[in-house]
Amino acid sequence: MTVGLFIPCYVDQFYPQVAIASLQLLEKLGCTVLYPSSQTCCGQPMANSGYEHLSHSCNQLFIKNFAEYDYIVCPSGSCTLHIKDHLHDAAAAATATAIRHKVYELTEFLTDVLKVQQLSARFPHKVGMHQSCHGQRGLHISQMTELVAAPFSKPLQLLKLVQDIELVTLNRNDECCGFGGTFCVAEEAVSVKMGKDRVADHLQQHADYITGVDMSCLMHMEGILKRQHKNVQVIHIAQILNGEA
Amino acid sequence: MQTHNNHAALSEVFNKDEERVNWHDETLWWVRQKRDKAAWTLPEWEQLREAASKIKMNTLSDLNAYLKEFEKNAQRNGIIVHWAIDSQEHNAIVHSILQKHQVTEIVKSKSMLTEECHLNEYLAAQGIDVVDTDLGERIVQLAGEAPSHIVLPCIHKKKEEIGELFHVHLGTPAGNADPQLLTNAARLHLREKFLSRRIAITGVNFAVAETGEFVVCTNEGNADMGAHLADVHIACMGIEKLIPQRKHLGVFLRLLARSATGQPITTYSSHFSKPQPGQEIHIILVDNQRSTQLGREDFRNSLKCIRCGACMNTCPVYRRSGGHSYHTAIAGPIGAILAPNLNMKDNADLPFASTLCGSCSNVCPVKIDIHTQLYKWRQVITQEGYSPAGKTAAMKLMAVTLSKPGLYRLAGKAGRWCIRHLPFLVNNRLNPWYKQREMPAAPEQSFATWYKKNRPAEKK
Amino acid sequence: MPLNSREKILAAVKKNQPPLEPLPAATAIVPIQFDNPLEKFKSVLEGIGGVVLQVNDLLQVAAYVNNSFKEGNKYVTTIASLTDVDQVDHSAKAHTLEDVEVAIMAADFAVAENGAVFITASSLKTRALPFICQHLVVLLPQHEIVHTMHQAYERIGAATYDYAVFIAGPSKTADIEQSLVLGAHGPKTMTVCLLADNYLPNR
């Protein structure tokens, strides 16, 4: 079975180490992984801004790049959700539908398809897990606090396989960080205030690292942490699971 | 860009006082937590939400018949039924009833519909004095403000500010901010109004088609004090507030207060069927573009709303921007999907005042897919031409760049080079990201470049 | 002939309403059941500032009222057999009740999950009574307590009432910085007197 690696545009450009970690992790777990090199972006920044009607070429390019794989795996809940919900092409409807059914966020791929029970990773630090909204409420990779329902978390399930990691308990388990795509600049004041509050929660619990499934959230929180001259660092879950120490 | 109807600009002003934002945010988050606690006492909570959603969907899908059924039964019980196509007609009907009874002073309990219709301003212009009797509403009325939350009207006001307001208007001691004392002062002040005014306006929480009765829920008892002491009781209702059968009240009354404030029920749930001997009850059924929303396939679910406010309490943006930043009668997530239907131009900003986190949809007791509708409204608003020209140009450029791999790679490389070698180009006041955040570091090579170098065999 | 607003609205609704969606099945909700509805009712009502006491007869009710409420001197009731207390003059305007200190009335039944009692207009006769008094006392046969609102409406069935109200505790508000204050516009206190099983007061 082949895995097509779908890398968010901002990860490709600004956080290649997250893509490298995702690739290496999947390979360690026995997957044949290929990265279609002419991929660009899922089109979410335009769609969420009201310009879904301009994303047709993006959709076509995505279909062209990924149609042939058995699975498409992405280290981002947000981008995965966008493809799942919004990938359409009237000229290739069946292919688009097929892709929507075989696209996975990285952690859900590990728990649901690869059924990972152990990892050889070690991360001896205090870590706060940020529940990125689209993965959580959109892809249901973990339970949300709004529902009266049994708790579960696929990312946490994997983090618990990492040796010597110490996970902190936050005051607000699943509040949005405020990145929100173009929201981060269009509503700068509220976006930053939300990010500051998330960061403050992790700082209060003395986390050394903040992790999560979406680098966009982490990039936003990292920007705030650096402006505040804090030593707390952000790290994508792929990097922890892949054994970076 | 105008600031008076721009959520981003108004929020920026709101955020200048960070301590106050923290206070506003923590207060409303606490209300959300009370809701959670109440919801978890009922193992059947999610069943209730699903049933409520289905009942409302059934109601909307048969609304024409239910409206006629309600009217027939209400009239049979002696209630006078009026129909108002828009807010102007609603206001005129209210006024005509007042004129008929030669009344110029009235009391009004909470009705978001009357806020939507700007009833108070209309009546004031006709020389009618309206006293809002819900404590929170009276406070904002004295302050000359609109309510900022549909259930907690003055949640944005500190008790010291309320104390000052009451000192000026009700003669309470200067500097006194004790909630008990202030509430007692309001009790006496408003009691005099209940006893002296002959016409009372209330809202309607639920109207039952099967029986022609309607239900009004309050904690304070002000709706009842007004209605039972008045010669004329005028109830104002959006047409979507119908439910099919009396027994459905069991579902909605179990969900409403738990969702709104975490209480199992409001202190009073008053069921009005017939007027008291010698009294008139009028009910005004208001459309005001609800029938238009009903025809919008993507947005009609917004009409299921029972006005609990849970979406506002959970919304991280609402909590940090305040209801007034939404510049519309109903704020927050539900307001953002209702208001564009009323006036798309004035409310074009609202669906964008969100990160689409989805929390709202999951606390909504009637399962409105709020965050999905926010996304869809963004598309409609853009297609209708209410997006700024600069944004459209930028998006078109983005669409082109992202559809051509070579151009995308070039743009990425150039951008990263700029950040590394000419940081002042991005690290400045013109870059909104940079205002309160550092830019991400710009690596020498993208992942695609790394992959090409390190995995040459797997060329694709 | 031009359509009036009623016709316009009904026509617009008919045109725009979606295809019919069914109501949920009767079994869609499995409501909570309490081991002891009476205890649950008591604890919820006390939690929202209500007072609950067990009484064996109406004399005890009168005694409780006389001992507990020292202010004001106008105590009224709608219960005919409560002969120690003045009967409400239902022919007078409701405004004449504005100086009522304590009002004593009877409830049909109560709801355990939320501490509410159910009272109809045929009991009240003067609707303003439970709101205009300073203190409310309600008599309730102690086993007329249902678990949830679903059972409440099953019990009400298709009965006709001119007016009816669920009352859960004293009036209150938290509009001033979320500080809970008991006694907004309605009564400042509410007492439920639970009547022993074999006692059925005339109403």
Task: Write structural notes for this entry.
The complex is a heterotrimer of chains A (245), B (460) and C (203). The radius of gyration of chain A is 17 Å and the shape is globular. In chain A, helix 12 links the parallel strand 7 and strand 8. In chain A, the strands form two sheets. Chain A has a four-stranded parallel beta sheet, sandwiched between helices. In chain A, strands 6-5-7-8 form a four-stranded parallel beta sheet. In chain A, helix 11 (188-204) packs across helix 12. Chain A is of the alpha/beta class. The two termini of chain A are 30 Å apart. Helix content of chain A is 48%, strand content 11%. Chain B is of the alpha/beta class and 460 residues long. The longest helix of chain B is centred in the N-terminal third of the chain and has 23 residues, at 18-40. Helices cover 50% and strands 10% of the residues of chain B. Chain B is built from 21 helices and ten strands. In chain B, strand 5 (206-208) and strand 6 form a beta hairpin. Chain B has a six-stranded parallel beta sheet with strand order 1-10-7-4-2-3, with helices on both faces. The mean pLDDT of chain B is 96. The radius of gyration of chain C is 21 Å and the shape is globular. Chains B and C meet through helix 2, helix 3, helix 4, helix 8 and helix 10 of B and helix 1, helix 6, strand 9 and strand 10 of C. Strand 9 (268-272) of chain B pairs antiparallel with strand 9 (163-167) of chain C.
